């Protein structure tokens, strides 16, 4: 059992929040302060929990969903408004996040026989209406939290399946590879969250690699940002270019890799490189086969895996799965060509 060291992983990266502030957009100014407070409080709880889990194996649970209403406060697990098997409520946001969590749970179970985030059926804790106009959604190590957005730039973050899939996958990564949330391992952590956010959206919409839009967060863009998205896996660097958010900084090739210190060493920036690889592989062997290859590889990665060792791990798994006839025979070739296309 890996240590439960989680990230405070937010769907909207710090550089977008900074651009919005520069543009004078009334995104709650305490967004990053809230994040820091959470990180500190959560770090204490997680340290306690991981020292406990080293001694006891967690009991298997049923991955029950619990939806809490933060009622525009910054408190999590405030009012329990819907639990597993409970009737729909009058609040459509509560019902949507409940349904979406069910779709994500079912995907991991059906595709990989993997139950909840920890494969031990951990309960899925979902908080909605967090803060006032809070324009973000995050996984913080043991639960998911969604703000309502400001209604202009970002609309309710709990509505989008890819956002929930992204955040929940941070939980899956935490309990499998445990990728460190910094530099290239952090970009791979972000990459995995985008991959399964996008894959689950494709499965739900019955799309193929060719018909999917490969956009992340396009459904949370408010009236002033219509037609844009947070990221594009198909064409990193082209998801947005507007006076409010600035320009999408994601590279799609190693020759443009971000080497700065912002965004934990570019975790939401350099994820564009492996994102492009996944798009190319999915286009070559179909999304479900690429997803299987990526998930099987995830279980073999280390917390410090970088892009180069990631390529080695994917190739090794491609060979293994092709022998077992679980992916097409030419998968290894497709994978090699796809990594070459981004300079790896
Ligand atoms: Zn993330």
TrEMBL record:
Residues 177-343 form the Peptidase M4 C-terminal domain. It is found in: Secreted. Its cofactor is Zn(2+). GO terms for molecular function: metallopeptidase activity. Its EC number is 3.4.24.-. The keyword DNA-binding does not apply. Keywords: Hydrolase, Metal-binding, Metalloprotease, Protease, Secreted, Zinc. This is Neutral metalloproteinase. It comes from Spirosoma utsteinense.
